[in-house]
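Final report, Chapter 2: Outcomes

The project's central promise was a pipeline that accepts a single protein chain and returns its three-dimensional structure in a standardized token representation, suitable for archiving and comparison. That pipeline is now operational. To close this chapter, we reproduce one record exactly as it appears in the project archive, with the input sequence first and the structure output second.
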Amino acid sequence: WVVDESGAIVFDSLEQTSCRDTELDVVVGANSQTTFPLPSWSFVDETGCSLTTGDYVIVGELIEFGYATSTTVKHIRDVFSRCGDMSAPQTSLLLDATESDLEFELQLTGNDEFVDIEWHGRCKAFLHLWDMETEQKVYETKALCDDEIQEGYTIRIDSDDTLVFRGSELKDVTLTDGNYRLQLDLITEQEILTEQTFSWPILDEIVDGEDGNQGEIPVTQTPSVFIAGVWSGVLTADGTCWMLEDEDGTIHMLAESAMANWLPERGANGMYEAQQTVANDACSRFTAESYTLTSILLETPPVEEEIVVEETNVVEIEEIESQVVPDWAPQAVTVLTVSAILSMLGFAVFNNEAIRISTTLTGLWFLGLIGKTSETSDGRFQRGRLLGYLTANPGCHFRALLSALDMSNGQLSHHLRVLEQEESIWRRKDGRLVRYYPLTNTLHPLLEADALPVPILAPDPLSLQGKILVLLDHDSQMGDFPTQAELAKRLDKSQQLISHHLRTLEKYGLIEGRRMGMRNRYKLTKEAMFLLETSEAYLQNEMNL
């Protein structure tokens, strides 16, 4: 994992992959070494944005062996993705000309709040000069360069501050008489454009430009086309590749945009004027056509579901006679209140195994079923079954034992209590669950939670995880492998909830996800197929479908 200068974790390899428990013996001989391969990383965060220039600490850790090492690296960002939402300062571009030379002045003024600007490299901007009559780019270069600066740096502009930069990159450019447009594209995290039109030779009055909003920028000589669809983003090692998909399923990739302070948004729908061009680094691995957007014709933001509240007309009616409250009303309110409280307590007890086990034992004691029964061979046999099952499956919780051993609440509670009194088993609370372990030299209550074995996952067929396994089993027989969105739609659940259960099932090795096209599709593993084929509960549930 990687930590930045503020101490925040910007990359964790365990979050990018699913690990399975395996036994591995490593012997390192004298004067030898063992190498463990680690995943590659391109200094981008989880949203696909390039990380800023600075010092980063890379930590390599082998948790199983208790080994860890670290090293510090100096990262200099030579590219920028412009995918952040940082605020931009106000810009102004002024021209100063003599009979033969042309210079410019760039002013950056802070807003109501301070603005942080990160410059990438020794040059601060790209300079572009167009001939407005022919719409040809006549000159371009990097501007405002400082040879003493070899890497990026950050500067803060307060609300009442103004930074002024003077450039003479146009000093040796020969211009013919005509109208021109000068544009500066700042090499910063924010997309900051400023431009100005002028006539050469310079007239007494110069037409001021408005922060890069002086019409469309001629990008190439290719003809313009109109594209429409819904925006989506795919995270790659080089950043986020933005794609516009229309109703026919045709995908148009975004190479760059000529609009200042505009970025696509997932789920947004729109129509745009564009020109075909080559793909950028983030989209270079895909085969769809890439475009440069020159103008926005129509755009609709993502639709958020709003809760519709029906308005009801309240009609006030004067009561001629005062209503008399019945005598039984207070008693009825009391009964309803007590019933509601008892229902909530019962629901809490039902969802907490520790409370439910104690309640079961107390109820059996009141009924006289504990302490008055004589020991039988069947009881010893059932406890032998229980101890054998826990030895094979340490860490099972109360409900899993009920399902696996086909016992009642009272039977299981009694046998667990006897085994605990005999110090044959011990238990530990895990959230709302109580997990039971056999008491051995290697399994005892003094162990840390991380050292305990992970219990075998055998979800209830009627639970959401069980339904996911049944659906994947049914679809695999038809040669179909559903996506997360398809599972959420068929089970009528949110994609966030389905994603959580898919990660849990994948962690325990019951399913695996594979990249097919643009989406991940899921299928059962051999272990899950064996679980479904040998579980009577799953077979009964399959017969009921």
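Archive annotation: The longest strand covers residues 224-236.
This record, like all others produced under the grant, will remain available to the consortium after the project formally closes.
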